[in-house]
Amino acid sequence: MLMRFLAATIALAMVCIPAPRAEELRFFRIATAATGGTYYPVGALIATAISAPPGSRPCAQGGPCGVPGLIASAIASEGSVANVAAIQEDRVESGLVQGDVAALAQMGAAPDLRAIAALYTEAIHVVTRRDAGIATIGDLRGKRVSVDMAGSGTMVDAGIILAAAGLAPGDFTEARLNASDAARALSRNELDAFFFVGGYPAPAIAELAGQVEISLLPIPAELARQVAQDHPFLSESTIPPGTYQGQGEAVPTLSVAAIWATSARQPDDLILSITRALWSEPSARLLRTGRPMGRAIERSHALEGLGIPLHPGAAQFYREIGMLD
Questions:
Q1: How far apart are the C-alpha atoms of 325 and 240, rounded to whole Å?
Q2: Helices (H) and strands (E) in the chain, counts
Q3: 3 state DSSP class of 5
Q4: Is the pLDDT of residue 144 over 90?
Q5: φ/ψ (deg, to 5) at 310
Q6: pTM for the complete prediction?
Q7: CA-CA-CA-CA torsion for 298, 302, 304, 310, nearest 10 degrees?
Q8: Cα 6 from Cα 187, distance rounded (Å)
Q9: Nearest 10 degrees: CA dihedral of 305, 307, 313, 314?
Q10: 52: part of which helix (H) or strand (E)?
Q11: DSSP secondary structure, 212-233, as one string
Q12: Confidence of residue 23 (pLDDT cuts 50, 70, 90)
């Protein structure tokens, strides 16, 4: 009788005690740009940092230290403008976006655009062959110039720089190639120059510099000042000497913040967890040992040059660590 009673009690307990809840599986896409630029490898690093697929070993035991149950992935795209559209239309959960593009979009067609963090500074590159006889932006008149793909932030900034230098669209032969294709065309003398906005060293440009002698056209101080006055999210900066093979001097240019953006519609708790994972010490180690641009991503710069409101979940994290009041 006693044994039957104990067996029944144990069976009842097994029914009443709920099974451990499995981790909820979530996917989180990060729209980047073409694979030859800096957005794609940076997006891939961030995706690794914030992921912790269901069934993974705990962080303390050598497993991933991201958000439990989250699988993040970097998605190649046409760039900043396309990424804003994809976020706005809920085709991706987040994307990397130039600060100037983000600010313009949030004030217009994408009012729900929100920031998770500013990641690093992007420089405007204007690349030519050293033997092309091109020394200034004005020398691009009559030349074959790629302004990057439609939908890219580079195309927006190329238009700003060319117009400030007095060049209208009909003054040069326009091509719309991503950085990798433009570099290939330049190496074959099928193109005279191309624009690229991104962190340095940009993989496509670094590879090109190992194949042919290149020059980076300067954006002189007077022109840069004029552009920055009209477009406050652009600021004067330089590309340091030695960034690319054969580059002996610093090149004056303009720069803009690279922002990791999302939608206000994303859940606050999810974005809080993602922001916390992004700035964790394991993520910092991963970023430092990953691509060169990963070393430029530092929490101390996370709120610089945003130009759009923070997502409430991200804002909560920055308040928790004392970066926001």
A1: 35
A2: 11, 12
A3: helix
A4: yes
A5: -70, 150
A6: 0.85
A7: 170
A8: 82
A9: 0
A10: strand 51-52
A11: S-EEEPP--HHHHHHHHHHSTT
A12: low
291: pLDDT strictly greater than 80: no
Among the listed residues 261, 258, 262, 286, the one whose alpha carbon sits nearest the alpha carbon of residue 46: 286
Residue listed under structure tokens 């050293």? 130
| pLDDT of res. 307 | 87
Q: What CATH number did the domain enclosing 283 receive?
A: 3.40.190.10
Q: Which ranges constitute the DSSP H helices of 119-178?
A: 153-164
Domain assignment of residue 274, yes or no: yes
189 lies in the same domain as 276: no
- Residue pair 84/261 in contact (Cβ under 8 Å)? The answer is yes
For residue 323, give both structure tokens: 């970066």
Which position has the token pair 């600060």? 99
Which of 45, 73, 80 has its CA nearest to residue 198? 80
CB 70 within 8 A of CB 26: yes
Q: pLDDT tens digit string along 73-90?
A: 999 999 999 999 999 999
- With 50 as the cut, is the pLDDT of residue 6 above it? no
Mean pLDDT over the full length of the chain: 91
Instruction: Pick the last residue of a domain from 211, 237, 257.
Output: 257
149-187 pLDDT per residue, tens:
999 999 999 999 999 999 999 999 999 999 999 999 999
